[in-house]
DNA sequence: ATTTATTGTCTATTTTTTAGACAATAATAA
DNA sequence: TTATTATTGTCTAAAAAATAGACAATAAAT
C-alpha cells in the first residue's frame, strides 16, 4: 500500500460501502472490526486513485473485502457535513492504544491526512454471502456479518449511512430487481419472499407475492427441489438478464 | 474571490447545479454562458469550502446565481469518471481566446488546479423563475434559461448531468411533492397540470389529475381567479407544509 | 337571455391489488 | 397400499385504485 500522503489518492474524498448479504431470514451488513483495543467498528471504506473511476474504486473496495467482482453495486448518497472527520475516532483509538504513539514525521503526516474533513460517497452492494471469501491476511481488521436490526455502534456517521442505504434499497428494490443478487444462482420462491420480508421487515402474502415476482418476467423455472420434507417440492428458479 | 490554488477549497471536488424553472408550459434549465469567444456554456458550478457542508455549498452556488435562498434543492448523483476534467474545455477556450495566454506563475497554477480530474456532485433545484434575480455584475459569465428540450451543447458531461437530473426529477416528483416549488405562491390546478406535463413531456387527463393532486392533501384552496375569460373562473391554490 | 369555453365533480368502467379457496404433491404414518 | 400432513402453485372472488365518460356550474361575451 502506498503512503496516504502521496498524491495517488484524491484528497478528502472517500467511499463507504454498505455490503448487504442475506442468511437465515436476516438481512446482514458486512462490518470491519479494527484489531486494536476498544471496539472500533466501521463500514468497509477506501479512497479513490487519481486514475480510477469512482465506480471502479467502489468495486475495488468491495472486491478487497469479499473477493466478489460482479454483483449489484450502486452509489446512493454523498455524506458531506463539514464536521465529517476521523479525528475524534482516531484520537480515541490512540488514547486506548498508547503503543501507537505518533513519533515519526511520516506517521504525523498520515495522521494529519487521515483526520482531515472527508466527503464520503456511499455505495451499497448486494452479494451472495456464500460467495464471499474473507481475506485471510487482513493485518489490522477483520470482517463480520451483522443482522441489520442488531448493528453495533459504528464509528463516525456510519450507522446513519447504513440507514440511508436501507431506505434506498427499499425504495428501489422492485425497479432494480436487485433482491436476486442476495441469493445463490438458483432459489425457491419462498427464498425470494423471505429476502423481501427481511429487507422490508414485514410479511408478504404468499399467493400474491408469487404472482408479483413471476409477473416481473425475469425468472426461469428450473427443476424441482426435493428437500425430503413431507410435502410438495417447490420449483427452483434462476434470475435471467 | 480567493485564489483557487489555496487550500480553502476541497481539491478535485465540485458541485454542478441543474436549476429547473418553469415558464410558458416549458421546463427550463439555467445555463451559464462564458463571456469569451466561442460558445462555452456550462451548468452553474462551484467548489466546496473546507468549513462548509456540501449541501451548504450547493445552496451558496444556487443563491449566487439566482439570489434564491429557500427552495427545493437536492443531491442526485455523483459523476466520477477518471477522465472527467476541464482540460479539453479550457484548452479550447484558450485556443479561441489568444489574449488569455498564460504567462504568470499564478495563472499557470490556476490552470493546473482547474484542469485536474474532478469528481462532481450533481444537485438539482426547483425554483420559481419569477423570484430569480440574475446577478448584475457577473464579470465572466451570463445566465440564460433554456427549454430542456432545446438545450445547447454544454461543456464536459453537463448534458448528461441534466438528463440524469430530469430522470431523477421524474422518478421522485410525486413522493417529494416538489412540483409546487416551480410555481408562485398561488396557482390554479391547470398550472399544476401544465407543470407536470412539461416535466414528463406527456399529457394528463384533467379530471383524474385534479383528483390525484387534491388527494395529496397538501393544497389549500383560496379565492377564485377571475381572468376575464368568458368561462368559469378557476380556484387558486396554495401549497402547504 | 343565450352562447361559449372552461372548471369542478360525479359516476361508470376498467384495471390492479388483495383476499380466499383448493387441487397437486412429496414424504410419513397407518 | 392407502390415509395423513404440510406446503406449493394457481385459480377465482372481492376490494381498491386508476381511467374514461359525462354533465352541471359559471364568467364573460353576444
Automatic annotation (TrEMBL), chains A, B:
Record-linked InterPro entries: NUDIX_hydrolase-like_dom_sf, NUDIX_hydrolase_dom, WH-like_DNA-bd_sf, WH_DNA-bd_sf, WHD_NrtR
CDD domains: NUDIX_NadM_like
Domain Nudix hydrolase intervals: 14-157
Keywords (A to Z) from UniProt: Hydrolase
Top-level division of the source organism's lineage: Bacteria
Pfam families cross-referenced by the UniProt entry: NUDIX (PF00293), WHD_NrtR (PF21906)
A GO term for molecular function: hydrolase activity
Chain ranges passing through the membrane: none
Domain NrtR DNA-binding winged helix: 179-238
PANTHER family: ADP-RIBOSE PYROPHOSPHATASE, SLR1690 PROTEIN
Annotated protein name in UniProt: NUDIX hydrolase
Upper taxonomic lineage: Bacteria, Pseudomonadati, Bacteroidota, Cytophagia, Cytophagales
